[in-house]
Structures are given as C-alpha cells and as structure tokens.
Amino acid sequence: MSGHSKFANIKHKKEKNDAAKGKAFTMIGREIAIAVKEGGADPANNSKLRDVIAKAKANNMPNDTIERGIKKAAGDIGNVNYETVTYEGYGPGGTAIIVDALTDNKNRTAANVRNCFSKGQGSIGSQGCVSYMFDKKGQIIIDKEECEIDSDDLMMAALDAGAEDFNEEEDSFEILTAPDDFEAVQEALLKQQVAMAQAEVTMLPQTYVTLAKEEDITNIQRILDFLEEDDDVQTVYHNWDEALQEE
pTM for the whole thing? Predict the structure, then answer.
C-alpha cells in the first residue's frame, strides 16, 4: 500500500483529458492507424491494435468511432505516414521523463520536444538514459466508489486472470500485469462488469522523486504542460511524485 492515492492523479489527468477530448481522440486515431498499418485490421491477430482499442475505451471513445477508425486505416494503409518516436530526458531535481510521439516529420517533432524541455530547464538525453528507471506494465485503476465487488473477490479475480500484483489505495485499487497478460486480465474484469478509471499498458517509475524547490516544481510543470500542448506528443511518463507534492 503506497503513501498516496494513484487515483487522485488519474482524476487530475481525466479532467485535463475531458477539456481536450478532441485532441485525445485524434491522438488515439493516429495510434489506431499505426497499429493497423503494422499488424492488420483484425484485433484478434494484432495485439498492438487490441491495446489501442483498450486505451480508446478507457478514454470513453465510442465503439462506432473506434470501428470507423479501423476501417479508415485499413483502406488507407498506403497513405499512413506517421511513425512512433521516443525521447528521453531529464527534468529539474533529477527527474526522469519519457516522451512517446507519433509524427510525420521527425525533425519538427524533435525540435519541438527539445524546446519543451529547455523551457523548463530540462534537457534531452540519449536513448536509454532514463528508461531503465521505469518498468513496462499493464495498469488498471478502479475507483472504489464505482466498484461493487468486494476487494478480496476483486483481487482473486485479477490474480486468477494472470495479474502480477494488487494494491489497495485510499480511494482506489491498482492492478498490475505483465504487458502480455494485460488484455486477459482486463477482459476477465470486464466480464464481471468492473468499471475501470484507467486501463492501459504504461511505463511505471521504479522510484519517485519529490521536488523541494518551488522553482523546480514550476519548471517541471512547464515542461509537462508544453509537452501536453504539442500535437505530436502522445504520452508522457515521469517519476515526479506529483500527487504527494500536492498534498
């Protein structure tokens, strides 16, 4: 059991996403296009597409919108020119930041991401410079208020389906899986009608960094805000203990 609520962070992110739902849907649409291009339009034979569909549903994207996106991507494979790029770097106070982007112009995106870091006194590093500080995991967050299943039953259902770990927070449950087991665990919980606040394959920090200086807090928030505003940026992972900072 950790010392602060992961769900507080999730709610904070959801509020931001709700304010920019159009952008979120556009970003997921790009991910669908890439997944279809790389592995085909059948989710049964394309694990990457299954993961993107799970992410789309967690972001409340309507099923018909998802299906339209898949069909459009399948008919437009030759014209899909986006590619996935990842940047790693350092924020203030020794914080580690990973940026996943989808771009049709790597030079533009690299320059923009570098500029976002520099505006918050951060710096881009070489590939692999901070990713070793993170673990790739399937993560499912469940709001206790929305969960009608007893915590012990929920834990057993998750572990029986292949989950690695089950954590209880103040206002939420966290279920962790190996990336390859994420879909099976999510499907098992969906069959029991468990409502999920978040469900995705993500990068989780092995340890978190707390920032003591106001200047550092302002600067890392600047980096994260500028990255969030960039149209090419899909996901940002960091090890700043934001929830603890806000307590």
Answer: 0.78
